[in-house]
Amino acid sequence: MVKVQDSMKYDLIILGGGPAGLTAGIYARRARISTLLIEKIGIGGKLPLIDIIENYPGFIEIGGMDLSQKFEEHVKNVGLEVKYAEVTSIKADADIKTVKTNDGEYESRAIIIATGVKSLELDVKGAKEFIGRGISYCATCDGPLFANRTVAVIGGGDSAIKEAIFLTKNAAKVYVVHRRDALRAEKILQEKALNNPKIKVLWNSVVREIHGDRTVSGITLENVKTKEHRHINLDGVFVYIGNVPNTGFIDVKKDPSGYIITDNGMRTSADGIFAAGDCRSKMLYQVSTAVGDGATAAFTAEQYLEGVL
Ligand code: NAP
After folding, report:
1. DSSP string of 90-126?
2. Which end of the chain is less congested by CB atoms within 10 angstroms, N or C?
3. Whether 194 and 138 share a structural domain
4. Is-catalytic flag, 142?
5. Which residue segment(s) compose the domain that 173 sits in?
């Protein structure tokens, strides 16, 4: 069993309360490691913002909020200590690592970074101006505001197509604006979207401008092949053009996009620092892979704390 040192507050600090961090917390507590989980906003990370999850084993279909609540019950059951604060920097060059937050400093011998990603913002005229007034990065939160209206979803990945399907519950029409002639999303999502009479995909198209007065009233698109511009009247724009990792606060080896590079034990380039979930450079970004990363990171961290590694 890991020996808790008197001179420090925790043996392990986990940064991030999404599926990876919570799983790491469950495994760490079951290994009787003194553990603190620090989360910026709320338990579940981005999970509660997902309408329906259909590929997490054991649940043919489960709401993101429901799955998140189940994870929360589980971490409470194992007695995981959770602190709400934003991490600003980590001092990782000594045996005792210091995590600085906007609400105090915490020390530990090992750290698991599971801070996930944030949405990439659309960078066109009007995109910033109309946030909250027709432009949204969360269909689950804002979709119901667009009942019987026309909206556009920007992007062609899993998030864009999933959320376009969700938006059809309320909206009268959903345009999917995609910059290529093929979607990146899972085939099953593509089938559902392309067979949905409320969804129309505008292929080879990028947004050039968002128009409106008090709220969004339309968008200008450019066809990337013909260079033709067209105007579409609509009421809302939902942006799903990918993500950037929340990793700016830690100085470890990263890929060119800022995702943390680990080995298959989730070890980073810094001694005693592990990474798990969407903030790590890997092949597949899913709840199921985040959970696997979290379990592995906790297991490897335990070995590190016991001096086995
Ligand atoms: P993503 O897979 O990176 O897709 C981003 C989409 O936006 C792509 O179609 C991309 O086009 C397009 N795009 C990127 N930059 C753009 C720009 N500046 N203007 C217009 N379009 C732009 O992001 P995601 O959909 O958020 O998914 C992130 C990860 O989470 C993925 O690994 C995904 O599989 C996973 N995920 C899984 C599920 C699930 O249920 N299985 C749900 C959500 C997310 P191109 O295709 O041309 O690059």
Report:
1. EE-SSSSEEEEETTEEEEEEEEEE---EEEPPP-SBT
2. N
3. yes
4. yes
5. 121-239
> Is residue 5 domain-resident?
no
The reply to whether 270 and 196 lie within a common domain is: no
Ligand 1 centroid, distance to 284 Cα (angstroms): 12
Residue closest by Cα to atom 32 of ligand 1: 285
297 in any annotated domain? yes
Are residues 15 and 106 both part of a single domain? yes
pLDDT digits (tens, 9 = 90+) for 7-57: 359 999 999 999 999 999 999 999 999 999 999 999 999 999 998 999 999
CATH number for position 63 = 3.50.50.60
Q: Structural domain tally of the chain? A: 2
pLDDT in tens, 162-221: 999 999 999 999 999 999 999 999 999 999 999 999 999 999 999 999 999 999 999 999
